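Case study 2.
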Amino acid sequence: MSKVLVVDDELEVRDYLVSILNMESFDVMGVENGENIVEVLKNYNPDIVLMDYRMPGRNGIEVVRQ
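Prediction:
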């Protein structure tokens, strides 16, 4: 089973994506921002990351650079 990390500051978008992916039998984790993303990536070790690039604080572009 593939692990997917969904990172989006909009609760409705994040919950929708998590729901759809769960229905398709993915192991999904949703987080609301990129602030602690490095720790989440180390602990969860996803196969796929779906990330909003416009988020307050650390945005998707900054996370990728890190």
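The radius of gyration is 11 Å.
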